[in-house]
Design goal:
The protein is built from five helices and eight strands; from the N terminus they run βαβαβββββααβα. With 144 residues, it is of the alpha+beta class. Strands 1, 2, 3, 4, 5, 6, 7 and 8 form an eight-stranded mixed β-sheet that branches.
Length: 144
Amino acid sequence: MVPKYWIGVVSQSHVERGVAGGFCQLCHGKATPLKRMKKGDWLIYYSPKTDMNQGTPLQSFTAIGTVIGEKAYEFEMTPDFRPFRLDVAYEKSAKVTKIAPLLGQLSFIQSLKNPAKWGILFRRGQFEIPKSDFELISSAMGIQ
């Protein structure tokens, strides 16, 4: 099966929790984005801020990993919050990498009607990217 390549948009502090726990969680814990991903797919996290609520701007790729889970599962964080998660094996040596130097090279940015408004794309929370863009980002993060 040919892998797909995904961007997930999550604050850096939440990314760090996922990397430490070996899971991903997207779009405030919704199951649908995770159901799009299959075992063997790749995920790159983009973090617009350091923290969801009070964070400072970061605009960086913050983690990269391979989906190893077969399917999404619910996890009880609190009695009132049961987000869905999917297991991921992260590349621990990946470097946090600013997006700005890559903007002119990423096809998924350049294909927009107005590439200067690239941030709008990331409001989706998750989207698929071409393998060539994945390779560019992963290389910039120090992963070959």
